[in-house]
Amino acid sequence: NITLKKNTNLGFNGSLNTGFTYGERARYNNSIALNYRNGKTNFYGSYGNQLGEGVTNGFINRTLERTGQDILSITDRTSHLLKFGVDYYINDKNTISVYTNQNFFDLESGANRDITFSDNPTANFNQSDLTLRDNTNATYNIDVKHDFQKEGHSIELEADYNTLKSDTNNDFDFSGNSPLIPYDEFIDDRRTNTTINLDYVNPLSENTTLEVGFETRLRRTENTYLTDRTDFRNSDFRYDRDIHSFYTTLSQHLGRWQYNLGIRLEDYNVDTQFNEVGETPFTFTDKLFNVYPSGFLKYTPSEESKNSYQLSFSRRIDRPSLNQINPIRQLSTPQVIITGNPSLVPQFTNSIELNFSRRLDKGNFTFGGFYRRINDEINRRGFFDEDNPTVLIIDYDNFDSNDAFGLEFSGSYRPTNWWRLNGSFDVYSRIQKGFIEGEAVEVNNTLMNAKLNNSFKTTKSLTFQLFTFYSGRQSILQYDLKPNFFMNLGARYGFAKGKGTINLNYNDIFKTQRFAFETFRTIIQEGQFKRDTRAVYLGLAYSFGSGKNKSIKRKKRDKNEKADKLL
Length: 567
What we know:
Elements: E1 11-22, E2 26-38, E3 41-62, E4 67-89, E5 94-117, E6 125-147, E7 154-176, E8 183-203, E9 208-227, E10 235-254, E11 257-276, E12 282-299, E13 307-318, H1 322-325, E14 331-332, E15 336-338, E16 347-360, E17 363-384, E18 392-416, E19 419-436, E20 439-457, E21 462-471, E22 474-475, E23 479-481, E24 484-495, E25 500-507, E26 515-519, E27 525-531, E28 535-545
Parallel strand pairs: 15-18
Antiparallel strand pairs: 1-2, 1-28, 2-3, 3-4, 3-27, 4-5, 5-6, 6-7, 7-8, 8-9, 9-10, 10-11, 11-12, 12-13, 13-16, 14-15, 16-17, 17-18, 18-19, 19-20, 20-21, 21-24, 22-23, 23-26, 24-25, 25-28, 26-27
């Protein structure tokens, strides 16, 4: 007798999520996701929204000038995200999958800035900002995959097209003894991003796998800036970037040894133009061809061994993000302007790591050391406006080099059946070099970061969590970032045989999460910004339906972009 099993991939299923966060203001998030598989076709879609207000408090005090800025910002955000996709299983060896994301985002932000002069209180004045922003972001994606007869042998083509349309209106009003008169700004932002990937995977043998790929990334950006402020100029910024790359990786197991060797060849082209009314047009081009090798070697003494050793090396690129190169102002106050630098070039990192891992009876841990050399490091800089020496302009620049070496530890351990710990810790020394106002500068400092998560399972359905984060003081060429610490407490309850969960979190219990800094070069000042991170979150999630199939997953890809920083 032959018993046929029911195909659990077929059928209808979905999930509902809703959440409420309350700090100084209320915020809401809701989503629904549906999936239906019938024969060769799988349909899926989702809708989610986020809405509510966030509050930011901050100050910036200049020590020598004895002036200060006190800042209160309230931002109301509303976003709607729609997704719809179809996976079509042509046969056992061929699939085609398409989806689209449509994101609609509205923002209304009001900021109040009190500028005070300790030595001359009659000069005090106030700036109030009102920002209205309307964003429409769309993504269109197609993925075609062919599986060959041999298991794991495949070729896959993915194309992704993304568009962004953003309109921003800024209204600035002043009161008190203000040197400025009210003015308005309008920013029109248009972007398109096209990414095409071709990936080929071939298991050459039971222990050897070859991966080969090609990638093209095309970015087109055009921003227009209009203002009625007389000392600011209308402008247009265009940024085109083409990246073409070839990459390959060979992985192999040889008894107790395992290795991976990879290389990426990349052609990088940037064409930038910035036109300001009454100024000579600024143009910048950057053409690079680079080779990025990578690899790791792992040794396990035996199949029964609890220890393993791994050596890895890599060279990578971190390209400047659009915010870092866009010269149109991102923040404008009577004393501070934040903008980008269109002359930025990518930063390059060479790194080597050596790690030791051990499995324990009740957990595992990894301990290792690393060395990194960063060239043309992208970081913030500050300098005074030539036309108005009281205004500090903050943008990005490339600095000479950054050497860092240190130790890292991460692990997981279960002292009892009801208690599990997960944590990581790193400490390292860093040497930064660069030129500030024509002077060669070098900064040496030691940094420390730590994370610890405790999970307590009181019953089969109820779990408590306690999460702690700490980052120590760190020095940059012009400023120090002060330590940052926060702690979160949470509870999770499962019901309906695991189909539903209720989450209750109390985030930033002691209201200590912050971004705080001290500037010691070019200008002496200190500042701090805190969001309403101390908040209670209540969330409910529920899954329903009989099918278990989910949409085809896309491969995660590194954008190789430098992360933005507030300062």
